[in-house]
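Q: I have 658 residues here and want to know how they pack in 3D. Can you give me a structure?
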Amino acid sequence: MKLKWAFIAGLLASAATVSAQSDPVIMTIGGEPVLKSEFEYIYNKNSSSSIDKKSLDEYVDLFVKFKMKVMEAKERQLNELPSYLKEYQSYKDQLILPYLIDKETEEDLAREAYERYKTMVNCSHILIKVKDTDSLSAYKKINDLYAQLKKGADFAELAKKNSECPSAAQGGMLNYIKPFTTVYPFETAAYNTPVGQYSRPFRTEFGYHIVKVHSVLNVENSYRVAQIFKRESPTAKASADSIRQAIKSVEDFNRLVLSCTDDRDGAMRGGELGWVNAGRFPAELEAAARKMTKVGEVSDVIKTEFGYHILVARDIQPMESYEKMLPELKKRLLRDSRSMTVVQKSREKLEMKYAFSKIDGGLDPFYAVAQDTTLTYSELNGRLQDLDAPLFTISGEYYPQASFVSAFKNHRDIWMSVKDATKKNTNDAKRTIERNKEYLGLTPHKLVDLAFDKYINEVLTGLYKETLLQENKELRNLLQEYSDGLLLFDISSKEVWSKATSNVDGLTKFFEANKEKYRFDSPRFKGVVVRCVDKNTKSEVEKFAKDLIFEGMDARILTEFNKNGARVKAESGLYAKGANKVVDQEYFNVKGAYSDAEYPYVVCIGELLEVPNSFKDVKGPVTADYQNYLEEEWVKHLRSKYNVKLNQDVLKTVKSNN
């Protein structure tokens, strides 16, 4: 049985038929059709600027030039270069990703995260790690500890003695957590456990946990506070109480903070502590700050391990709305472990959309092969030959086991390399394991399941991407625009930009042929200007420069005369009158133009030009003009190569958004 993709062709052909009816050909270039939607999309996008509005006829000419250059790039197979393919695929994946995400699940998770952001959970936990593939012993141990807790055992003591997390030394204490600071299953367990209670055992990528919640802190508002502080002493409490009694208003607080606080650095800032972030200040201080309800409110005296504090609320900012936080929440979702929930839901919808069904027993030959890790490559190929039994169906079409062989071998190779790396203690081995952590400790059976799951995901998402591009005109145009832009840049660089900047012979010939165009409007001094600390240095420079060519002369002089201190300053260039004071004085007869007590003596080595000697004297304008010349010659060549036919009837129907 051959791998069948006929149904895909049918879907795409159907979409293309509908497209042709509503999206006529507006022109052909070199025999290649251009659809009205592509032209209209780019026309409206590029003529939206009031600075660069073009008439339709003008834009047709620009568009034709653009498409001819892209066709030339394709003819030279620039669209097959690895650099192009990598950049194009990256953009395509980025463009399509939002369409692959299950919006309903994403919305639910974003809303859940937003609600959780309103509080922080103070918790501790017990962790029992899963070692290699032995999850059973870890499961038994965590359940034994759970049983001890139910009988009244102390959570902190059990954590100290049994937890395999660094927090064990503190009785498993993690302090406050908030959304996205832990893996999603742990976060969910913490937020769903009532204060004062502990959760049932649960699994994360790190192992098995039990979490205990000590308190929940409301952080819906953000607080900026200032303090009056009294350091711990026999009289500190009485002093703090007296100060609090004297405070009747914010003005009183501001006056007393300067004279009464023991935080002298803080006093210079009006007692400012800044914004209250969880864990930044002692818990007692943070709790007192979050009880305040209005700006200017003054707290009671608060005791911490450092001493006594009196707070005033300088600012209270409510939490941003869900709508404002949503873009950032979505970004975090994609980077967080909960993104797997979105991915899984999206995968389920693709399976339903394309009626995916796995055939029972279809993977059995792969399970058998995976068990034997001693197979040579030829033996492996022999075992995987002629696997024509059905493996899965999509939209009623059967796909044979042979369709999965290549993907299976690739994943098996990675799995084998990880197994081999675990036996070594080298940096390369560690990097191999780090890159492929999901393969670590997999049984042969689970390897096959993982490989098949990834393979089916590629099949389904690949199918969805192609049908999506056929169905979504805007997306298709965006991708086409990006592809053409990449090719236009590459071909223009080769044909125009690189030649214009690096072709010395071409620049020279172009300059000589158009020399009259580049005459100076006034004389120019071309040469090296040297400023010297004394008369002897000036004489030495004049003597030294006699044997030097102009190119690089300034660098040679600087190197020679500044070995043991800065004796000279040197620069080279082309100077008009008024551009350099030394040149003005020495060549343009401006008396007293130059004066410098540190470098009073000057040397000018060069000549006064009425017209430029070479293109280098006017390199900027010559290069720009030469680039335009190359562009014009190239376009002439393209017009002779690619025949252009316009469909005037379709052109008349082009709509402008302006």
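Q: Anything worth noting?
A: The first strand starts at residue 25 and ends at 29. The chain has 26 helices and 17 strands.
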